[in-house]
Design goal:
This protein has helices spanning 20-26, 43-60, 77-80, 101-118, 166-169, 178-188, 218-234; strands spanning 65-67, 89-96, 122-126, 143-152, 199-204, 207-212. Helix content is 34%, strand content 16%. The protein has 235 residues and is α+β, with helices and mostly antiparallel strands. It has two domains: 20-152, NADH Oxidase (3-Layer(aba) Sandwich); 166-234, putative nitroreductase (tm1586), domain 2 (NADH Oxidase, 3-Layer(aba) Sandwich). A four-stranded antiparallel sheet has the order 1-2-4-3. Bound molecules: flavin mononucleotide. Residues 31-32, 34, 83, 124-129, 147, 158, 161, 191-195, 217, 220-221, 224 line the site of flavin mononucleotide (FMN). The site of flavin mononucleotide (FMN) has 22 residues, from strand 3 and helix 7.
């Protein structure tokens, strides 16, 4: 008689579907989480996330690096007295220096965030409160480490951020097509540095235009917002 055993490290059934539809479904569920349990990212879950990150690198030319069981970058006193607790895993967002590096990191990094959420993980983008020098992967000459994304099994699922209203970021949203409204709603759920939401979205004929008010991390924010808009508009 065959006895089916379940590997406790296996990603729950259905979760390994990391299609755009599945990523879009994570948008309302994702919130920043800064405190993690000791549970390791391993087995099928780690393998599925690694495959997803590899695919993003192939498509974007970035060098996003999944680092697991590497607490070093979050272990200094400064970091420990901050908001983060027990960060042992992260994605180091690395790429060749060029004008649109920050925006591409935002776009592809956020797709990894939503994939991680689909795999039952929690996350938080981190621009400042980690130790750059202790990141576990080398940054080659001509490359830049833009930021990291903390990952793990959260002690909570986080909570929704305070948000601007659709009309504040997209003045023409009333009377616009449904797909555009859905895109704007998904963009408002995007993580942005210090929740600044310094972006504007407009529709010019059939073309969607994105603008950023400028400032720290707003280019990364804009890439994240574009990823959310695209997934939201597609649903
Ligand atoms: C580019 C970027 C950098 C961020 N850097 C930090 C950081 O250094 N420390 C931190 O605690 N949160 C950081 N965050 C998380 C934001 O504070 C968070 O996304 C925002 O408050 C919205 O909340 P939500 O992600 O729960 O929707 C960062 C977010 C982004 C997009």
């Amino acid at each position: 008689m065959d006895i089916e055993t379940t590997d406790p490290t296996e990603a729950p059934k259905g979760m390994s579907d990391l299609s755009d539809e599945r990523l879009a479904a994570q948008i309302p569920l994702r919130h920043s989480v800064r405190s993690f349990t000791d549970r390791r990212i391993e087995g099928q879950t780690r393998a599925a996330l690694q495959r997803f990150v590899d695919e993003c690198n192939e498509r974007s030319g970035l060098s996003l690096a999944l680092c697991t069981d590497e607490p070093g970058a979050f272990s200094s006193l400064l970091v420990r007295y901050g908001l983060f607790r027990n960060v042992r895993n992260y994605i180091a967002c690395i790429g060749a220096q060029d004008q649109d590096l920050q925006e591409r990191v935002g776009y592809w990094g956020e797709r990894c965030v939503l994939a991680a959420q689909a795999l039952g993980l929690n996350s938080c983008w981190v621009g400042l409160t980690y130790s750059k020098k202790k990141v576990a992967v080398p940054v080659s000459a001509g490359q830049e480490l833009v930021c990291v994304i903390a990952l793990g099994y959260g002690t909570t699922a986080g909570k929704p951020h305070k948000s601007k209203r659709a009309l504040q970021v997209a003045p023409g949203v009333e009377g616009s097509p449904d797909w555009f409204r859905r895109g704007v709603e998904a963009a408002l759920l995007a993580p942005t540095a210090v929740n600044q939401q310094k972006f504007a979205i407009s529709l010019d004929g059939d073309e969607v235009r994105f603008q950023s008010e400028g400032g720290a991390y707003t280019k990364v924010d804009l890439g994240i917002v574009k990823a959310h808009f695209e997934l939201g508009a597609m649903r």
